[in-house]
């Protein structure tokens, strides 16, 4: 029975290298061009044919050396390859000269924004929601970005979408259990969790995640109206609790002050009537119209 041997993945590591200033070699290269052209003109005027061959070789060398010049802007790097072999990365900005046979791949190390599309996912309770996030990222290790993934920009986009889906499914949208973190109420904590999730996923591409935040969060259209009515009902209930609690406190205060200041002596039946009237006035939604009673409670 043959055992399956797991495939090993070699992680690339950036190797910084320094390039030679291109200004000196630019002067040398221009002088080489001038020498080759002058020798070629002299040969055309009746010189030795072997000198013509030498002039052509000089001009060919000057053209080849011209391929070794390149420039880098701030926060830009160049990955150097020689026949498929990685030779290093130049990070310093300026005008440089390297081996003309090197193939140079420029990589931007500036911060970039990935504005994700709206995704329809299910939260922890299974409710369909719409969610979107913006991710601020930059290339940290150019060797990993170039050699360890096929296309690091496409890799960042796909893994960001996957991370947003995973994080959204681990939290409820709103109205969770006591002290439970929700997508709507714990934006800072959710953003921190999303940043950690993204960093774990994108580390193999040499990408550093600087920030990740939700830009859109809402119930899916098919349940949005039902959830809106639920939220309105819960808001009404919460408001009613506050109103009733305040009304009971005011009635209690009124009865206590009437009793302490001996304004009027009320028996239990009159207290009950007064409490009923005050609660109607304080808790009623519509304007109260008083009714003047010219008799007594006992007639």
List the helices and strands and how they pair.
Elements: E1 20-21, H1 22-44, H2 49-66, E2 69-72, E3 76-82, E4 85-90, E5 94-97, E6 103-108, E7 112-115, E8 119-122, E9 128-139, H3 142-147, H4 152-169, H5 187-202, E10 207-219, H6 221-260, H7 268-283
Antiparallel strand pairs: 1-5, 2-5, 3-4, 3-6, 7-9, 8-9, 9-10
Helix pairs in contact: 1-2, 4-5, 6-7
Give an overview in words.
The chain is of the alpha+beta class. It folds into 3 domains: 20-108, no CATH class; 112-219, 2-Layer Sandwich (Tetrahydropterin Synthase, Chain A), CATH 3.30.479.30; 227-283, no CATH class. The chain has helices spanning 22-44, 49-66, 142-147, 152-169, 187-202, 221-260, 268-283; strands at residues 20-21, 69-72, 76-82, 85-90, 94-97, 103-108, 112-115, 119-122, 128-139, 207-219. The strands form 3 sheets. Strands 7, 8, 9 and 10 form a 4-stranded antiparallel sheet that branches. A 3-stranded antiparallel sheet has the order 1-5-2, covered by helices on one side. α1 packs antiparallel against α2 (49-66). The protein is rod-shaped, with a radius of gyration of 39 Å. The mean pLDDT is 81.
Q: Structural class, from secondary structure content?
A: alpha+beta
Q: How many helices in DSSP terms?
A: 7
CATH topology name of the largest domain: Tetrahydropterin Synthase, Chain A
Using the CA coordinates, give the radius of gyration: 39 Å
Shape: rod-shaped
Q: What CATH architecture of the largest domain would you give?
A: 2-Layer Sandwich
Q: How large a portion of the residues is in β-strands, by DSSP E?
A: 15-25%
Record field, number of beta strands: 10
Low-confidence stretches: none
Give the overall pLDDT as a whole number.
Answer: 81
State the CATH class of the largest domain. Answer: Alpha Beta
Tell me the domain tally: 3
């Amino acid at each position: 029975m043959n055992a399956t041997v797991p495939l090993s993945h070699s992680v690339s590591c950036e190797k910084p290298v320094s390039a030679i200033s291109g200004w000196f070699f630019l002067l040398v290269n221009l002088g080489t061009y001038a020498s080759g052209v002058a020798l070629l003109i002299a040969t055309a005027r009746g010189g030795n044919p072997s000198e013509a061959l030498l002039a052509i070789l000089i001009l060919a060398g000057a053209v080849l050396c011209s391929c070794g010049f390149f420039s880098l802007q701030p926060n830009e790097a160049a990955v150097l390859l020689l026949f498929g072999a990685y030779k290093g990365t130049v990070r310093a900005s300026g005008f440089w000269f390297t081996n003309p046979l090197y193939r140079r791949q420029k990589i931007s190390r500036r911060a970039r924004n990935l504005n994700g599309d709206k995704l329809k996912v299910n939260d922890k309770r299974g409710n369909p929601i719409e969610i979107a996030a913006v991710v601020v990222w930059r290339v940290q290790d150019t060797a990993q970005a170039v050699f360890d993934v096929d296309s690091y920009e496409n890799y960042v986009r796909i893994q960001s979408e996957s991370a947003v889906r995973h994080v959204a499914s681990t939290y409820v949208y709103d109205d969770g259990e006591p002290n439970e973190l929700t997508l709507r109420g714990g934006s800072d904590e959710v953003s921190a969790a999303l940043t950690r999730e993204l960093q774990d996923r994108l580390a193999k591409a040499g990408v550093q995640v600087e920030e990740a935040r939700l830009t859109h969060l809402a119930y899916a259209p098919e349940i949005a109206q039902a959830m809106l009515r639920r939220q309105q009902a819960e808001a009404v209930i919460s408001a009613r609790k506050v109103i009733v609690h305040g009304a009971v406190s005011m009635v209690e205060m009124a009865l206590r002050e009437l009793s302490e200041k001996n304004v009027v002596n009320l028996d239990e039946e009159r207290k009950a009537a007064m409490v009923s009237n005050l609660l109607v006035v304080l808790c009623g939604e519509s304007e109260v119209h008083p009714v003047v009673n010219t008799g007594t409670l006992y007639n």
